[in-house]
Amino acid sequence: MRSATLLVVVMLTSASACSKPAVEEVATTAAAPVTVITVTPATLEGVVIAAGTVAAAPGADWTIVAPEPARILEIPKAEGDPVKTGDLLVRFEIPSLSTDVANRRAEVQQAQARVENAQASVTRLTTLVEHGVAAQKELEDARRELAEATAARAQAGSASANAGVLASRTVVRARFPGVIARRSHNPGDMVEASASDPILRVIDPSHLQIVAAVAIADLARVRVGNAARILIPGADEPDTGRVLTRPAAVEPGGVSADVRIAFAGATRLAAGTPVRVEIVAEDKPAALSVPTEAVLTEEDETYVMVVAADKAQKRKVALGLKTPKQIEITSGLKAGDQVIVKGQRGLPDGATIAIAK
Length: 357
Fold this sequence. Notes:
The chain is an alpha+beta fold.
């Protein structure tokens, strides 16, 4: 009897042990936490980003140099001073020009005297020939001398005028209203007639532009008239502008080319200020887009994870316009779909999820 009882206990114990599942067979049902967005149609902008510099527009930036080696007699404006059209900027002393002007004027006077003498000779000989006193050849010689004297006078007059033009360059006056951006010399300085020895730089601050270095690969996306945003260091709001010009040719082997952008209004920026530019290259209204981190790839398949009830569902999608933060979805999604943007990596299709609030 005792033996039978022991056998029953052993059998019950074995049956109880067999009814418990192995540890590795226990499946978890915990929901994976995720963050989602609801897809809604909105305008999507494609932008070209470039580094730029504030610069004066063509014709609004003038660097003054001496017409010849000279000494500065007068330079009344300092850096930062405003100037009006016609204001005196620099007065030079160029002894060689003064001497040349005097010599050319003397040559004109000599040429005029020669013409007068030749004319008088022609008049006198004409009368003598009419009375048979002088030979016809003498009259012809006198007329030839008059023609040569007249030509010499014209040449001397032209040379004198040219010397006068050069002499007038000893005084430089403002061509347009602006501001003295740089002053490199003082009265009494000797200066060379070279771009490497500038005297003053005048800028019209009301005609400033942005010169942006756009990557050649992006040039095809840029059109004259495209809107642009000028991002200013330390400013809360960007300035706005429009693409004014784009290059018709680029340097072989170059990596970027200059695009000029006009400000939409007045700017407080100074010439030479570095800025960052966003040129609106594409503008798609009512586009469906998701954050770039929501899009996943696996081999040749591009997909997103969407919410289906309390499960994650893999959804194959086609992509359109790409921006630094957003990607357009051209097929595979519809307005109102909830797309997982955080926690989707490594999440299996059909996994149970919990949406973070």
